[in-house]
């Protein structure tokens, strides 16, 4: 219980709400009870929904087993163990301060060896003291087990107190959800909808299309694993809060049972007829539900039935307005089905069209009955439950017992239809919110046709296509064809079908307009800002003109002879000039060299001083005369070499010290670490960059405190990372790597030793580096020792990953509770979207995450914030190349363009899809561009850049189209003699898209006259073959050769005419 705490403010707020509901409706839904008793027994692994457990979750956020609570008018008495009493102590103190109204909470602690009989008697005595005629309200339908429950039930039975059932009161209390509860319901509904759309639909399509024999029960198990791991359906939710509300249901093949508790059968999924899938999910114990019917080869009758059922569900959702009786939804369903000529479906409907949901999957007191059902009359009476804002309903319409006489497959003749969604009742005139709307249910989105085999093997037909974007008309036409046999559905038959590439291009066009407007607004806003930093020379962080070696002549050392001397303490070099030693501060010296004579009898020491227009003293004293260099000749060669070395060492150490001082001066002051009451610790971690210093490196521990992390080693080395300084927190579990990583990318750099860094990483190696000592012989893959080593490595990797996962989970909970304003969340890279590339010196594996593009395994690290990216240009993209480059242009045009080279061409489509999904505009080009002059021209004239199309000058396709039009117009231009014509042809060829063919084209011109007059001899043919091989060799160049060519590629200008010129030179 050490890591568990309750939300005291929420507890007080909800306890006060409980008393308000109880006192205002005591004689109504609370059945006249003036004392309430809620008992929870021993914990159970079974999936069950009990009112008492729901009340615990609602009040505390947790279910407290072996606990009895007694509510009187003024007190809440809690009988529980010592650990749970300690957990509730903050709530006791808050109620004592009056934060929950007049109610006070008191604890009765049960010792471990005690059965609790005496304490149960104290609870019943308190009930008698509180009321003259106590009426004890209980939840008799909740069946708990455990020793304390047995003792309590026996004590109540022998007490003689009047008992009533308060199930309706608790249900009424929990019916309307507050903002936090609504958020949990939405998260559960999002999980259900994404699991349906991103896993169920592709999985069912794959099973049907491939003809696999996959059992319904197996699909249910696989789907349950996906729901409990939301990352598999691209949902960013905490996995520990995700669970199923009931086992996922898959039904097909003519056998349907639409009850929630109906298990999925062991029969294989049928590839014809109707497939009904229902998913129930929970997030933080709040439930959501979704159900969809997927129809293969729909008939006309099925089309009409499904559309009518869908319209009836929409009518039921619209009828759930605040103040309406619960019968309104069922009446709306019946009326809508009759109006659409489907009154035959009414008797086949389930007894209700939905029910309330929340902490319980089915709130029995808030059922939406059909007219004529047993509960319809009671629901419509005065005082019966009515719809209120904040209620959550599962609106579910299901019909069983339908038949399709036209189906050729016997198992497809009997079918059922079911549609269910999670609905949140909204106050006012706004329509109710459908929380599961991200899983489409329109007819054209849930129907399929089967492709007929060309040789007529109809029974072996496979799933061809979801009717992408087609309306009901297409479905009707398909149904007509399906009635007479299989329908061959082609994407080319659908004028509304759009491929992924077309959809991507449309979105990129939208991004272009938006990006140009953003660029113009940002650059014009920055136009009046400060320019780049002025260049500096000499010492870093201090002005050279203000440095001084000695404040007076008396501080200079006494020299015995006129020799070049180095005073390290004063940071000065003493040089003899006209019989006097003149001091020069080391920061004024640029370089020192020594040259020995040919005979080696003398040495020349040459001292060069800093000089130039950018030199800071020259800018401060423009009329002064500066010394450029001095030369000294010495017969003591050893002394000359020693002096030169001392000057270099002093200059290097002072420059390094000034650099560190300047870096520290630019650091943003960090807040002091505040030690938290609860400190989460992760031991045995290494850090990168490592602490400086000699000696053996040792691992340390990472602690999470109230406002920051602290990493410390047994040697006393300490590093603090404040939460407010963390820009991105990344967790990368070990999968294909040997380390598990926690990485922090910072807003402002910090000092690690004497180096400034914006990236700090903590990691643990999951596999030990070992060396085989068996003589290097080949080992069998089934060798027991080898298998044991592999198993041990897997266990170690899983153990370390789990430890990191728990640490990340606890820190995330602390951030959400104590630092919500920071919006910090752990980001996990998506390995399936990764690609290889060279961002620095070596090939690494880049992986996108939600907010970044990262590489965390090798140093230097790469953490690229997606929000900082302006555009991405994919360079050297061509069919004959094995890889391409990525140029990332940042919104800050003064920042260097980041290049990721040598990306395999097979990753191109995946990268383009990822960039489009992230809303990042990208372009493709055939050559590398020089970005510095381009960005310089854009900064110089941002308005002209946007007026001439903005980033559109990088569009390779549009540029090619314009060039083709220009070539077509020049084709009929009048020409002079034949030589001029040849020259124009040569110019046209020089502008060809493929620069690698230029040499071949020139050679063709050279031999063009001979080709017209006579045939070619063997020498000429061999020359042509060599030229062709030379052209083809371009695609086989090594990465180093291509990078060399890339550096020699011509640059391009920026905005306006420069941008157009860049596009032309690129081609």
From TrEMBL:
Disordered as annotated region, ranges: 453-482, 958-1067
Any one GO BP annotation for this protein: DNA replication
Protein task: Component of the FACT complex, a general chromatin factor that acts to reorganize nucleosomes. The FACT complex is involved in multiple processes that require DNA as a template such as mRNA elongation, DNA replication and DNA repair. During transcription elongation the FACT complex acts as a histone chaperone that both destabilizes and restores nucleosomal structure.
Domain FACT complex subunit SPT16 N-terminal lobe: 6-170
An annotated GO cellular component: FACT complex
Species, as recorded: Astrephomene gubernaculifera
PANTHER family attached to this UniProt entry: CDC68 RELATED, FACT COMPLEX SUBUNIT SPT16
Annotated Histone chaperone RTT106/FACT complex subunit SPT16-like middle domain residues: 835-925
Subunit: Component of the FACT complex.
Primary localization class, coarse: nucleus
Entry protein name: FACT complex subunit
């Amino acid at each position: 219980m050490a890591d568990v705490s309750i939300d005291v403010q929420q507890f007080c707020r909800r306890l006060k709400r409980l008393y308000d509901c109880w006192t205002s409706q005591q004689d109504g839904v609370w059945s006249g009870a003036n004392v309430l008793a809620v008992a929870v027994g021993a914990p159970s692994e079974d999936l069950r929904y009990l009112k008492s457990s729901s009340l615990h979750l609602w009040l505390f956020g947790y279910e407290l087993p072996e606990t009895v609570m007694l509510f009187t008018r003024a007190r809440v008495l809690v009988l529980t163990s010592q650990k749970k009493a300690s957990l509730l102590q903050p709530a006791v103190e808050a109620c004592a301060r009056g934060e929950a109204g007049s109610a006070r909470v008191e604890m009765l602690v049960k010792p471990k060896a005690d059965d609790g009989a005496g304490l149960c008697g104290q609870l019943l005595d308190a009930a008698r003291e509180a009321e003259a005629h106590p009426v004890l309200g209980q939840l008799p339908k909740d069946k708990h087990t455990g020793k304390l429950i047995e003792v309590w039930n026996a004590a109540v039975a022998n007490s003689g107190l009047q008992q009533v059932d308060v199930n309706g009161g608790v249900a009424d209390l929990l019916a309307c959800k507050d903002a936090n509860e609504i958020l949990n319901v939405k998260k559960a509904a999002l999980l259900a909808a994404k699991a349906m759309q991103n896993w169920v639909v592709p999985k069912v399509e794959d099973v049907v299309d491939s003809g696999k024999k996959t059992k319904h029960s197996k699909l249910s198990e696989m789907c349950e694993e996906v729901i409990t791991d939301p990352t598999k359906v691209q949902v960013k939710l905490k996995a520990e809060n995700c669970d199923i509300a009931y086992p996922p249901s898959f039904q097909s093949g003519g056998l349907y049972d639409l009850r929630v508790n109906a298990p999925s059968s062991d029969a294989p999924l049928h590839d014809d007829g109707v497939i009904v899938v229902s998913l129930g999910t929970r997030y933080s114990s709040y439930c959501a539900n979704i159900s969809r019917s997927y129809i293969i080869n729909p008939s006309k009758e099925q089309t009409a039935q499904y559309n009518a059922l869908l319209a009836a569900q929409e009518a039921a959702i619209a009828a759930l307005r605040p103040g309406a009786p619960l019968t309104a939804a069922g009446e709306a369903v019946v009326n809508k089905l009759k109006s659409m000529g489907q009154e035959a479906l009414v008797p086949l409907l389930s007894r209700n069209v939905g029910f309330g949901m929340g902490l319980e999957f089915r709130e029995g007191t808030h059922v939406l009955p059909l007219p004529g059902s047993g509960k319809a009359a009671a629901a419509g009476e005065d005082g019966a439950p009515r719809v209120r804002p904040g209620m959550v309903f599962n609106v579910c319409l299901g019909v069983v017992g339908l038949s399709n006489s036209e189906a050729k497959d016997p198992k497809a003749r009997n079918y059922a239809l079911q549609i269910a969604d999670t609905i949140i009742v909204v106050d006012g005139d706004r329509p109710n919110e459908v929380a599961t709307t991200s899983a489409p249910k329109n007819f054209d989105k849930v129907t399929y046709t089967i492709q007929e085999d060309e040789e007529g093997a109809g029974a072996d037909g496979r799933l061809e296509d979801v009717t992408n974007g087609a309306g009901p008309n297409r479905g009707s036409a398909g149904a007509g064809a399906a009635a007479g046999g299989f329908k061959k559905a082609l994407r080319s038959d659908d004028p509304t079908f759009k491929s992924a590439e077309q959809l991507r291009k449309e979105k990129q066009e939208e991004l272009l307009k938006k990006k140009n407007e953003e660029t113009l607004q940002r650059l014009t806003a920055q136009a009046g800002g400060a320019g780049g930093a002025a260049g500096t020379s000499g010492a870093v962080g201090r002005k050279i003109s203000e440095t001084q070696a000695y404040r007076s002549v008396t501080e200079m050392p006494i020299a015995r002879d006129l020799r070049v001397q180095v005073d390290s303490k004063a940071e000065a070099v003493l040089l003899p000039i006209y019989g006097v030693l003149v001091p020069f501060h080391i920061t004024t010296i640029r370089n020192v060299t020594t040259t020995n004579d040919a005979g080696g009898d003398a040495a020349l020491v040459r001292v060069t001083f800093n000089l130039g227009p950018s030199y800071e003293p020259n800018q401060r004293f423009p009329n002064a005369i500066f010394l450029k260099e001095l030369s000294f000749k010495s017969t003591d060669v050893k002394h000359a070499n020693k002096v030169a070395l001392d000057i270099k060492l002093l200059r290097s150490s002072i420059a390094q010290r000034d650099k560190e001082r300047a870096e520290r001066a630019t650091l943003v002051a960090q807040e002091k670490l505040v030690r938290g009451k609860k400190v989460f610790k992760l031991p045995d971690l290494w850090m990168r960059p490592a602490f400086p210093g000699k000696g053996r490196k040792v691992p340390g521990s990472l602690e999470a405190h109230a406002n920051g992390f602290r990493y410390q080693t047994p040697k006393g080395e300490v590093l603090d990372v404040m939460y407010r300084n963390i820009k991105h927190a990344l967790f990368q579990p070990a999968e294909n790597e040997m380390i598990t990583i926690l990485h922090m990318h910072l807003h402002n750099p910090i000092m690690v030793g004497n180096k400034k860094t914006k990236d700090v990483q903590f990691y643990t190696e999951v596999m030990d580096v070992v060396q085989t000592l068996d003589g290097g012989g080949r080992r069998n893959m089934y060798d027991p020792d080898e298998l044991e080593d592999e198993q041990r490595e897997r266990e170690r990797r899983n153990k370390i990953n789990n430890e990191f996962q728990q640490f990340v989970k606890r820190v995330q909970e602390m951030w959400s509770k104590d630092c919500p304003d920071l919006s910090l969340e752990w980001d996990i890279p998506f390995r399936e979207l990764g690609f290889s590339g060279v961002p620095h010196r070596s090939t690494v594996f880049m992986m996108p995450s939600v907010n970044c593009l990262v590489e965390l395994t090798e140093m230097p690290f790469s953490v690229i914030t997606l929000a900082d990216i302006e555009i991405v240009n994919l360079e050297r993209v061509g069919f004959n190349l094995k890889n391409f480059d990525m140029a990332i242009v940042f919104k800050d045009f003064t920042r260097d363009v980041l290049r990721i080279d040598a990306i395999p061409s097979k990753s191109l489509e995946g990268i383009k899809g990822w960039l489009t999904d992230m809303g990042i505009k990208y372009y493709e080009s055939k050559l590398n561009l020089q970005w510095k002059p381009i960005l310089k021209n854009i900064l110089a004239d941002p308005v002209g850049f946007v007026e001439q199309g903005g980033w559109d000058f990088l569009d390779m396709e549009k540029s090619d189209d314009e060039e083709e039009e220009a070539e077509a117009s020049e084709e009929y231009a009048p020409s002079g003699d034949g030589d001029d014509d040849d020259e124009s042809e040569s110019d046209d060829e020089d502008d060809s898209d493929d620069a690698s063919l230029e040499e071949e084209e020139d050679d063709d011109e050279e031999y063009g006259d001979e080709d017209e007059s006579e045939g070619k001899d063997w020498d000429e043919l061999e020359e042509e073959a060599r030229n062709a091989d030379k052209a083809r060799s371009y695609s086989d160049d090594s990465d180093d050769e291509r990078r060399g060519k890339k550096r020699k590629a011509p640059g391009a200008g920026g905005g306006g005419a420069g941008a157009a010129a860049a596009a032309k030179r690129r081609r």
